[in-house]
């Protein structure tokens, strides 16, 4: 006697699409821009909010245009995470909203130092994390670069469209 195959749940309905590839009910994609030269050079945004997620572009340890924590992977990681978290602020988010981090290192020997910086900032949050060793970065002296992804839940408020000096938000 064979067991009956359990019925599969019905697939959720697909959203209606209006316009080129956009769902009718989907909120607009919001892009946060800053004065960082890489944004213009490679054509990217500082952060992008789409639906319930906010993704922050790769962040190097720079403070005021200067490399922070030269030769110190711990200080570079702290500076990079602090800077990446600042990109969440216009969306009303902070460390507790972070659900994923990525850490890129030049040297495997720096995993403990970078991990310590991560733990100090996100220890209670415990986001999903990945740490990778790469061959290098575009900027000399950079040992660490980070990316973060945050969840904004049902509150889909975006950045102030008129923030004054600093990063500027655009939609579309």
Automatic annotation (TrEMBL):
Residues 1-37, 151-172 are annotated as: Disordered. Residues 1-15 have a biased composition (Pro residues). This is RidA family protein. InterPro entries: RutC-like_sf, YjgF/YER057c/UK114. It holds the Pfam family Ribonuc_L-PSP. It comes from the Bacteria.
């Amino acid at each position: 006697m064979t067991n009956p195959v359990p019925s599969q749940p019905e697939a959720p309905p697909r959203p209606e699409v209006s316009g080129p590839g956009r769902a009718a009910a989907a909120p607009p994609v919001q892009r946060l821009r800053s004065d960082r030269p890489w944004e213009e050079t490679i054509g990217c945004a500082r952060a992008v909010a789409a639906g319930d997620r906010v993704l922050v572009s790769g962040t190097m340890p720079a403070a005021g245009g200067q490399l922070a924590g030269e030769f110190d992977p711990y200080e570079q990681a702290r500076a990079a995470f602090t800077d990446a978290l600042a990109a969440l602020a216009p969306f009303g988010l902070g460390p507790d909203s972070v659900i994923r981090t990525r850490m890129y290192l030049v040297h495997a020997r720096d995993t403990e130092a970078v991990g310590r910086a991560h733990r100090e900032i996100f220890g209670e949050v415990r986001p999903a994390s990945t740490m990778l060793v790469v061959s290098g970065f575009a900027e000399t002296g950079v040992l660490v670069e980070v990316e973060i992804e945050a969840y904004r839940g049902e509150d889909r408020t975006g950045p102030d469209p008129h923030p004054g000096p600093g990063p500027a938000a655009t939609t579309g």
